[in-house]
Amino acid sequence: MQPFFAKGALLWVELPLDLIEVAEAVAENDAARVSAWLADGQVGKVSETKALELVETDPPLWAVVVAPWVLIQNRANA
User: Is 70 in contact with 11 (CB distance < 8 Å)?
Assistant: First the structure.
């Protein structure tokens, strides 16, 4: 995860959004949906604060690669 964060390629997806649905929208260049999620703060680049929190707490995450992006999210019910 750290190399992708360093490249600015790590995107956080908030619950309750469906990670697969978001990845599909990114892959299909669905600008309307992706822009709406970005504007609402439901999807965004992982901040330094968030990255430190993730390293310190080591929560169960899942990820999808949609080059050049890696989308990550807390695993629901993990």
Answer: yes
